[in-house]
Description:
Order of helices and strands: HHHEEEEH
Number of strands: 4
Largest sheet: 4 strands, antiparallel
Number of helices: 4
Shape: elongated
Radius of gyration: 29 Å
Distance between the termini: 126 Å
Low-confidence stretches: 127-135
Amino acid sequence: MARPIAAFVLAAAGLLSACEDGAPEQNMTRVKIVVPASEQLKALSPLYRFLGLRRSIVDSGQRCKKVDRGAYQQDWNNLAMWTAHCTDTGDWAIYIAPNDDVQVRLCSEAAQLKLPACKPLPPAAAEADATTAPAPASPRKPR
């Protein structure tokens, strides 16, 4: 009787081992969460986008005199991550949730908080114009 049971066990083990190659198949569907507030910011002109980013910073209790640069950076943990540069307090990371909740953190604290690092922003338009514009001509003296 031990022989038929052993044969059955070996046959069952053989059948089960033939079913898989060791790694189960992964049929996963990825879902991209849409963040409406982020999409609205993307559609705005730079002036209004900078005002929206500034408002996010100020409404979170932080100081920001003026945002002169800002850009969408990436999606992170179902949040839209934006970066902004305030003229008086520096670089900020702004995280917008799909329900429009906002969290604001200093970019300098990103590594300590295990958040994505802020990517450098391009120079502000006024700074770029000042560096590329020719020097004004000296005024002529009347003859």
